[in-house]
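Write out this protein's structure.
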Amino acid sequence: MTAPPLDGSHDIRALMGHLPHRYPFLLVDRILECREQKTVVALKNVTYNEWFFPGHFPDDPVMPGVLILEAMAQASSVVVNAILGGRGEEISYYLAGIEKARFRGIVRPGDSLRLTSTLIRRVHDIWKFEATAHVADEIVVEAVFLCATKTQFPR
């Protein structure tokens, strides 16, 4: 059975039908758009209650860059899920590489992180995405991701 389409009007339960992640590692709150099974625009509302803030610069809380990259990769997986037509828990999707990652700003509690990811190439089970993370109109992170579905990583 396929997960329901995401168009920004669905709640977190619909999103969880597309992603296998759960608290504390579900780093996407809403899919705003999924265009032509190629581009996804997602939202992560960053709150002071996040599990990482007490230990990551407690006097000057900053969202860790690796978690911003993880959120971008999770958003990208929605495109893979849409193309493969499955539910999030049925598709194993792994981060296989990060290229050209640039951190251009800081993400703090209270920020809304807009994640945009576009599929630029697929070769068998390897997927390549260009992605950005914005706070307001400012790019805070940009990167190119290589991702793989389960068949590329034998145990």
